[in-house]
């Protein structure tokens, strides 16, 4: 078995998640349970669409056929992040398609439209 050594004793700092309900963490969208329950429910996938002009990410439940028809979204997998029930969605595909979006860990502003079942997330820094 091969071993790797760091002779300079440089160890990358561990980053901690922020205490905010919607955040970008290690290129993943992290949603606290109370936010995620409102539109994801028990679904393991969501529809996602990016509006470049406004730097907004739109998310909706896969049962939202109106969203699918209007926005031509892609499907992203939803994973449980921790024992609290928070959810995590990988955004690496978006970063590949939209390289101008900052990948830094940060709090994200959001708006949940209950009537349409859409979560709008502002990805601007």
Features:
alpha+beta, 3 helices, 16% helix
Compose a concise summary of this entry.
This protein is α+β, with helices and mostly antiparallel strands. It has one domain (22-122).
Structure description:
With 125 residues, the chain is of the alpha+beta class. The protein has one domain (22-122). 16% of the residues lie in helices and 35% in strands. The chain is built from three helices and nine strands. It has helices at residues 33-39, 65-71, 92-97, and strands spanning 22-25, 28-31, 45-51, 56-61, 74-80, 87-90, 106-107, 109-113, 118-122. Strands 7-1-2-6-5-3-4-9-8 form a nine-stranded antiparallel β-sheet. The protein starts with 21 loop residues before the first strand and ends with a strand.
Enumerate the spans where pLDDT stays under 50 for 5 or more consecutive residues. none
Order of strands across the main sheet: 7-1-2-6-5-3-4-9-8
What series of H and E elements makes up the topology? EEHEEHEEHEEE
The overall number of domains is 1
User: In one word, what is the shape?
Assistant: globular
Number of helices: 3
Helix content: 10-25%
Q: Report the β-strand fraction as a percent range.
A: 35-45%
Biggest beta sheet attributes: 9 strands, antiparallel
Radius of gyration: 16 Å
Structural class: alpha+beta
Number of strands: 9
**Between the first and last Cα atoms, what is the distance in angstroms?**
43 Å
- The overall pLDDT average reads 87
